Amino acid sequence: MRQSKCLSTSLKSKGFTNFNHYLNSYRIQYAKDLIINSDLNKVTLLYIYSEAGFANQSTFNRVFKNLEGITPSEFIKNYI
Questions:
Q1: Sequential DSSP letters for 8-41
Q2: Helices 57-68 and 19-37, axial angle in degrees (round to 10)
Q3: CA dist., res. 41 & res. 63, Å (int)
Q4: pTM, whole model, 2 decimals?
Q5: pLDDT in tens, the chain (80 residues)
Q6: How many CB atoms lie within 10 A of CB 15?
Q7: Which of 29, 44, 65, 68 has the fewest Cβ atoms within 10 angstroms?
Q8: CA 73 to chain centroid
């Protein structure tokens, strides 16, 4: 079996639709951990999304909302 096919099969068995879905899930979880564990008076959303591997805020917001059902700002208000 080709390595890419093996990786794809493995990711699908874990509930991810493709590699991008896996990677974005990992990045969003990391961003949520940063939000929860950081002093938000000292770090910015720019720091959080860039540390999580996103190049711009609009992509970060879109992916966060797609995966979590709320925006990053709503997450911060609701959970911190």
A1: HHHHHHTT-SSHHHHHHHHHHHHHHHHHHHS-TT
A2: 100
A3: 24
A4: 0.84
A5: 577 678 778 777 877 788 899 999 999 999 999 999 999 889 999 999 999 999 999 999 999 999 999 999 999 998 76
A6: 9
A7: 44
A8: 14
